[in-house]
Structure formats: C-alpha cells, structure tokens
C-alpha cells in the first residue's frame, strides 16, 4: 500500500520501469531531475510536492519519479536529456519522447500552470518545436514558443525566436496582450521598455494591472539592486532618473521601490551617517527589507566609524529576536559577530 495521499507520489522505479508503468496506466512520466546541493530542488521536495493539492494534480496524470543527476542511473539520464540546470522537470511519453521541459521551481499554483502548458498540445514544447522547424508557425504562435523555450532554459533558441518575432511586430502589435510575453522581456532603457512607460494605461487595459505592476516592480527593483550592490549599470538610466520614474508610478509596491532607492543612493554616495540612521529605522520592519542593509553595510565598511558598530549590533539583535531557526538567523548571527569585532 502506498501512503502518498497527501502529496506527490514519487515512486522508486528505474526509468524503464516508469515508462512501462506509464504505458500500462495510460499516463505520462513526470521526472524530477535534482542534485543534493540544489536549494530550489530542496524547496520543491520539502515545501511544494508534499502538499495535498500537489498530489491531487500530479498523481492522476503522471507516474512520478525523481533522480539525483549525479548518482546512479541519474548520471546517464542527465546526459540523455541534456540536463544542465536544476531543478529540471521533464514530461515524458511512454515511448520515451520528451513532451515538455520546465526548469526551476516556484510556488505550487504557478508551477502547476507551467506544467499544464506541457499537457496542452498547442503549448507543449514538443509540438511547438516541431511546428517551428516545419516553417509553418504563425506570428501569433511565436510568443507561446518563446515562453516554452524560456521555461525550458533554452536561452540561445529563445533569443533567436525573440529577435525573429520582435522584427515582425508593429508598434500596434506591441501593445496587444498577445505579445506581452515578448514585451515583458524588454530591458530597462530600451526603446521597447520606454514604449511600455509611454503607454501604461493601454498596457494596463490589455494585460491587467497585476501583470503590469509585477513587471514594473521587478524591472525597477532589479535596476536599483545593481546600483545598491555596486554592479554594472551600463544601459540603465541614472539613479536620479530612476527615482523620477518611480515617483510617477501607480503601483502597490511603490514604497518598497522608494526604500530600495534610498539604499542605492546611500551606497552610491557612501553616506555612512545616513546609512546607520536608516539601518536602525528599518530594524522595526520585516526581514526581507532588512537583509539588503547587511550587504550594504559590507560595501560601506571603510566609511563606517568604530562608534557606528554598536548601533548596528543593537539593531540586528532586535531583528534576530523575532526569528526562528534557519539560514537567515545564522546570517544575522554572523553579521552581529562581524559588527562586534569592529566595535
């Protein structure tokens, strides 16, 4: 008797046995390709796949198996399926044909949506690959193919399809929901990104506020992080121009972006005094807002005074007191240790 009712039933089968069982049960094979050191792999194993909703979805559709790509049969399977990133999830037909590939984990709802695309013939990677290679793929089908290639971590081919599609799009096309998959890959500072900024009401109407806000938040938070962490900023607007653009946005996460801007401005100006004041103020906030401060503290190490460190220690201890055991707690304890040495 198998006791997997509360989650995904990963069965102890060889690859050949999984194919045989899938054929007998009229199912597909769902293969989890993982490694022992992969953090997202562990997250999927410990937090996503044990959920009852995961079992309810996967178990009726698939014979589910998992292989460590660095041990046993997994070594050959990694070569056979050209697995180069982890976790990789394969949907395989009983005859051994790979129907779809998904790379990377995520929350259950989003992950099921990605897997479901592999069950729909018109959005599965195999179908789209074959249609593209036949030369019969229409312009309206290219976005789905581009998304499937991105999801499969096939970056080189995805870029080729992206360039091919972009060359065919008129400005009117670019405003349509049909082509948002391509437009949402626009890099900040590019003509297409500026087109989005110039037409925010139209994009909101066509793709919905939630999608648009998420795109804007991710774009600006990524740009601000590059300034904040001292990474390359070629091609990005100047930091002051980013602030002007953020001020004009109407999104729920606007304050989060303004907080990131404040940190980026401090890091760029090396303003240690302002940094310590902000560090203490944000110790009352949530952990995700506090963690970037610890990194900026390292960047400003040569600017900070000996008298600043006791204040950093006290603020970090305040955050630490509200945490359970885990990686973040270890990181905060290590930060306190380093701050104390310099006090």
From TrEMBL:
Q: Which residues form the Thioredoxin domain?
A: 1-121
UniProt superkingdom: Bacteria
Family matches, as Pfam families: Thioredoxin
**Key word Signal present:** yes
Matches recorded under PROSITE patterns: THIOREDOXIN_1 (PS00194), THIOREDOXIN_2 (PS51352)
Swiss-Prot/TrEMBL keywords: Redox-active center, Signal
| UniProt xrefs under PANTHER family | ANTERIOR GRADIENT PROTEIN-RELATED, THIOREDOXIN DOMAIN-CONTAINING PROTEIN
Task: Tell me the protein's name.
Answer: Thioredoxin family protein
- Species annotation: Candidatus Odoribacter faecigallinarum
Q: Print the organism lineage.
A: Bacteria, Pseudomonadati, Bacteroidota, Bacteroidia, Bacteroidales
């Amino acid at each position: 008797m198998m006791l997997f009712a509360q989650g995904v039933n990963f069965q102890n089968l060889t690859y050949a046995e999984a194919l045989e069982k899938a054929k007998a049960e009229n199912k597909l094979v769902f293969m989890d390709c993982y490694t022992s050191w992969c953090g997202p792999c562990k997250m999927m194993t410990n937090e996503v796949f044990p959920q009852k909703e995961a079992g309810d979805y996967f178990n009726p559709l698939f014979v589910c198996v998992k292989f460590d790509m660095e041990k046993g049969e997994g070594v050959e399977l990694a070569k056979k399926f050209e697995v180069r990133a982890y976790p990789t999830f394969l949907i395989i037909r009983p005859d051994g044909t790979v129907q779809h590939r998904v790379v990377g984990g995520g929350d259950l709802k989003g992950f099921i949506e990605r897997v479901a695309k592999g069950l729909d013939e018109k959005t599965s990677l195999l179908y789209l690959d074959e249609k593209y290679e036949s030369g019969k793929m229409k312009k309206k089908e290219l976005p789905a193919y581009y998304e499937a290639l991105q999801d499969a971590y096939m970056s080189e081919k995805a870029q080729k399809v992206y360039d091919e599609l972009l060359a065919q799009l008129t400005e009117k096309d670019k405003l349509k929901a049909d082509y948002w998959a391509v437009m949402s890959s626009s890099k900040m500072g590019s003509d297409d990104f500026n087109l989005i900024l110039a037409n925010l009401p139209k994009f909101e109407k066509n793709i919905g506020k939630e999608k648009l806000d998420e795109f804007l938040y991710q774009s600006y938070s990524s740009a601000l992080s590059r300034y904040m962490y001292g990474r390359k900023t070629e091609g990005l607007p100047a930091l002051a121009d980013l602030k002007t653009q953020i001020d004009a946005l109407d999104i729920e996460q606007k304050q989060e972006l303004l907080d990131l801007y404040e940190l980026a401005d401090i890091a760029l100006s090396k303003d240690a005094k302002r940094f310590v004041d902000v560090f203490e103020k944000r110790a009352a906030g949530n952990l995700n807002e506090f963690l970037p401060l610890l990194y900026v503290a390292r960047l400003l190490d040569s600017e900070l005074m000996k008298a600043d460190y006791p204040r950093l220690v006290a603020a970090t201890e305040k955050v630490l007191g509200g945490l359970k055991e885990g990686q973040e707690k270890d990181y905060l304890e290590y930060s306190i240790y380093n701050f104390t040495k310099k006090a």
